[in-house]
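This section describes the prediction task in plain terms. A model, or a person checking by hand, is given the sequence of a single protein chain and must write out its three-dimensional structure as a string of tokens. No templates, partner chains or ligands are provided. The sample shown here is typical of the held-out split.
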Amino acid sequence: MNTTCIKIIYIILLVCGCLMMAGATYGYLSLRKAINTYQQTTGIIEHIEKKKVRRHRKNRYEYTKRISYHTPQYGQLHTYTKRFIPFKFLNDSITVYYNPLYPREVKIPSAESFIWTFLFLIGGGCFFIGILIMKQH
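The expected answer:
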């Protein structure tokens, strides 16, 4: 490969890695802000629905989880999520943060931190590979 092509590749890897890590950092900061301002409660996964969906000529499975949580002011509330919550099954308890003014506005830190960690690791890998390519040439 010629040197201009290699330069373009490592610049793209460096920029993509920086953008992914910046996005993950922003996600962590927004989660931290929500943890500081929202109320914490314990939610229970009451129901998991597995649905077969055909997308782009492939069969996919969508998992929808119904989580119930108790608020002192509004009583028992439910929320639905399609996010991946690692290692959580039916009747497991999870930490839920809800907005005291809008109790249906919910953050599930285990699911969100998984997403942001994954994005940060992929971005760090792209950045590291870009640095390695830059040092070799």
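For orientation: Strands lie at 39-55, 58-71, 75-81, 93-98, 106-107.
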